Amino acid sequence: MLEQNVLEMKDITKIFPGTKACDKVEFTLRKGEVHALLGGNGAGKTTLMKILAGVYKPEEGKIVIDGQEVEINSRKKSQQLGIAMIFQELSILPNLTVAANLFLSREKTKGIALNEREMEEEAKGILESIGLTINPAKKVSSLSIGERQVIEIARAISSEAKIIVMDEPTTALTKEEQEKLFEVIKTLKSRGTAIVYVSHRMDEIFEISDRLTVLRDGKKIKTANTKDMDTKQVINMMIGNQHFNELATKKQIKRFSGTPALEVKNLSFNKYKNISFEVYEGEILGIAGLLGSGRTEILRAIAGMDQISSGIIKLKGKDCNIRSIQDAIRNGIIMVPEDRKNEGIIPGMSIQKNLTLTNLSNYFPGGITKEKKEQEIATDNIASLNIQPPYRNKPVGKLSGGNQQKVVISRCLNLKPKVLLLDEPTQGIDIVAKTELQVLFRTLAEQGMAIVVVSSELPELVALADRTLILYDGQVKKVLVGEEINDNNILYYSTGGA
User: Which of 174, 373, 438, 465 has an alpha carbon within 20 to 30 A of 104's alpha carbon?
Assistant: First the structure.
């Protein structure tokens, strides 16, 4: 017996100027299942879900809910059909109570006044039905991000949604909050609610989903039972090149000798002390450690962004007196910061302006901006790193996280670094952009660049690093080489293992 489809999207086609965002896409959703929707930037995931939400109207195709063809021409119509969308940017109002948020635009009244007591009682029942004990009279502003996320889900339940779309729901959650969210999802499944789960985190996909659908370049590549797939198969479908991912995950064991490109001796400040290491031309040195172990602070000191109390920094055997970012840049040390939104880009400026911002004196001597030259640089950068969409004048703030990061990295590479410092370079970006960047880093190292990468993602360090420095409590705990660099060893030493 076939399982019941609560949703069928058939031959969905959506065209924007210059691109076909969805090209005859087929998508089905069963009652009581979690269906993961996967794909890189520009794959068509968001467009498909916005069509379901009534934000966009498709040029072709039809939508069937519970066996009946429907026309969804507005957000209101989508909600009336039992569809709830929960996006990364939460829509609940922090200045209102939990109960008031659950019944927003559906307030219960007593005469002309709000019946707060009735709303709070009903809200308590809704929350308890998914295993939550949050006081419905509390202001949302006093709740954690994870609790606010679940309040969004509770609001969908209170509106009797039978289809819930979750877009990257765990991005800002702690591990404990994530586990609580998964418990709520399991409860919803048991009640027959159908969930579309959009995420780039492979571990989550394999833990929580029943089926998965992969989109690429606006087309559906495959729908499969999650248990029948593995991570490599899924990534290859998303990327479209069987060998591409292998470039990022295979590296030869190298032995480096001679004068290091960068040498740090007894570097000390508040969160770290007596840190010493070296990195050679052509080498990728990983740095791992728990939050607060001093990882980021060490990179920022080498890049001239933060001060040090003692220690020596050498480049090619010569002492460097680095007291500012300008000192570091002059010496060929460039850093890609962790916080790209606040320290890496100017969101309102165009891709073109962001790409040339830090190197204007070299590109345009005398302070005269040459528009044609700037356009050439931007066009070349966009093509080299596959920045999407490839429009020079598009504001950087309108790009996806992965493409914003490509702009930051491309601008840094324009400065022709001898030593490239990367702080969480692929954090919060989708698997396709992540793989592209990992391939880029490996290629840069093979061309002779010295790279230091701080990452919380253990598979990234395993894939990229020739050696990995483990920090614990502000000190070097262990240096791993070759096959020693694996998840278990990194975790063991990062948490204080002897």
Answer: 174
